[in-house]
Amino acid sequence: MRDESNIGIGSLRRPSIGEAFGQARLALRLLRDGRVPAWHKLIPAIAIVYLVSPVDLLPEMIVGPLGIVDDLTILAIALRIFIQIAPEEVVADHTRESDSEPISTSYRVHKD
User: Fold this and answer.
1) Cβ atoms of residues 74 and 51 within 8 Å
2) CA 64 to chain centroid
3) Which residues contact 44 (CB under 8 A, 6 or more apart)?
4) Stretch 17-22: mean pLDDT
5) pLDDT tens digits, one per residue of 88-98
6) Given a cut of 60, is residue 71 above it in pLDDT?
7) DSSP for 44-88, written as a single string
8) 27-42, pLDDT tens digit by residue?
9) How far apart are alpha carbons 108 and 112 in whole angstroms?
10) Cα 101 to chain centroid, rounded
11) Which residues contact 71 (CB under 8 A, 6 or more apart)?
């Protein structure tokens, strides 16, 4: 059974920045997965079209930086709905995959 406490539409808890990026990564993986029906993939696509369209609920030209809030809210809601309606087994596969993925990096020290 999938834990929907972090992805439910009715959840009042705001996700942290890390959780938001995690949801975005999961959504990108689900978009690339052929097991997710094409009509499910329309949800994030419609949100992206809204983001680039000149029509806004809160126009940036009138309310300034607060106008970006409606864009981000629409995108966050669309991603939550998309993840929630995607097939459970596919979401579970990608969640396990991202949990087990090691983070690798390299660095060099430069002497001044």
Assistant:
1) yes
2) 24
3) 27, 31, 78, 79, 82
4) 82
5) 999 999 888 76
6) yes
7) HHHHHHHHHSS--SS-HHHHGGGHHHHHHHHHHHHHHHHHHHS-H
8) 999 999 999 999 999 9
9) 13
10) 19
11) 50, 51, 56
What tokens appear for 30 in the block? 């689900």
Nearest to 20 by CA among 78, 91, 64: 78
The half-sphere exposure of 29 on its side-chain side, counting CA atoms within 13 A, is: 17
Phi, psi of 40 (to 5 degrees): -65, -35
Give pLDDT, residue 81. 94
* Residue 59: both structure tokens together: 């126009």
Amino acid at 46: I
- Token look-up 């993939």 returns 41
Q: Give me 39's structure tokens.
A: 């009509």
Which two three-digit tokens encode residue 11?
Answer: 């959840």
Question: For residue 69, how many other CB atoms are within 10 A of its CB?
Answer: 13
> What pTM, to 2 d.p., does this model score?
0.68
The whole-angstrom separation of Cα 48 and Cα 26 is 16
CA 96 to chain centre: 17
Helix (H, G, I), strand (E, B), or coil: what is residue 2? coil
